[in-house]
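Session log. Operator J.P. requested a structure for one protein chain; no other inputs attached. Running the standard single-chain path with token output.
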Amino acid sequence: ILSLSKINRRIEYTVEDVPSYEKSYLQNDNEELAYNEYINKPNQVIYIALLHNQIIGFIVLKKNWNHYAYIGDITVDKKYRTLGVG
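Structure written below.
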């Protein structure tokens, strides 16, 4: 975080550390249920990347109003990001 302050006629700043954050995916059943709405829909699709029958990533696509694909979500497990998945 960058904090600015005006002291006399000078602008000074301080930089504060922000704790790192790593988003986790599909931690609970509610998130999995949210993706069920894409199944059997003509303008939506989910592609799942598997390695040894384990899900290592997925991409959610929708047909946008302008007929281009809209990427709603894309996720690749951190351990497999060097394999060209995604």
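Operator note: Strands lie at 2-7, 10-15, 44-51, 54-63, 69-76.
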